[in-house]
Amino acid sequence: MTRLTGSALRVTVYIGENDTWHHKPLYTEIVHRAHAAGLAGASVFRGIEGFGASSLIHTSRLLSLSEDLPVAVVIVDTETRVREFLPQLDELITEGLVTLDDCEVIRYVGREGTQDASRGRTGMKGKKSL
């Protein structure tokens, strides 16, 4: 059973939906590396509108611009574990924004003994979330 409570660090990676790493979505690579690093959890959130350094507004309301919507990857774990993971983000992120925020985890407990047959993971019931 996984437990994490108390002081933690949240890293948020803001990228575009079309950003890739070796021909696959960059957000997928970040999540898989966070999982391989044993971090507590990672979630990907797709934005409906936003802009970044390019100053181009991307929105789901206009079909011509809806192909590269903003994406945020959020990872929460202890400060030590998150900071150990940062060099991997440096390798992956060529355009985007990475922020760090202190946070407090009130409750994070993984399920003991559950297995999702479709993904071969324990405790996640097929969802990628914290």
What is the secondary structure topology, with strand pairs?
Layout: E1 6-16, E2 20-21, E3 24-25, H1 26-36, E4 42-46, E5 49-50, E6 58-59, E7 70-77, H2 79-92, E8 97-105, E9 115-116, E10 121-122
Antiparallel strand pairs: 1-7, 1-8, 2-3, 4-7, 5-6, 9-10
Portion of residues in beta strands equals 25-35%
**What is the share of helical residues?**
10-25%
- What is the tally of beta strands? 10
What is the helix/strand order?
EEEHEEEEHEEE
Q: Characterize the biggest β-sheet.
A: 4 strands, antiparallel
Using the alpha-carbon principal axes, give the shape.
globular
Provide a brief overview of the structure.
This protein is of the alpha+beta class and 130 residues long.
Account of the protein in words:
With 130 residues, this protein is an alpha+beta fold. 19% of the residues lie in helices and 35% in strands. A four-stranded antiparallel sheet has the order 4-7-1-8, with helices on one face. Strands 2-3 form a two-stranded antiparallel sheet. Strands 5-6 form a two-stranded antiparallel ribbon. Helix 1 (26-36) runs antiparallel to helix 2.
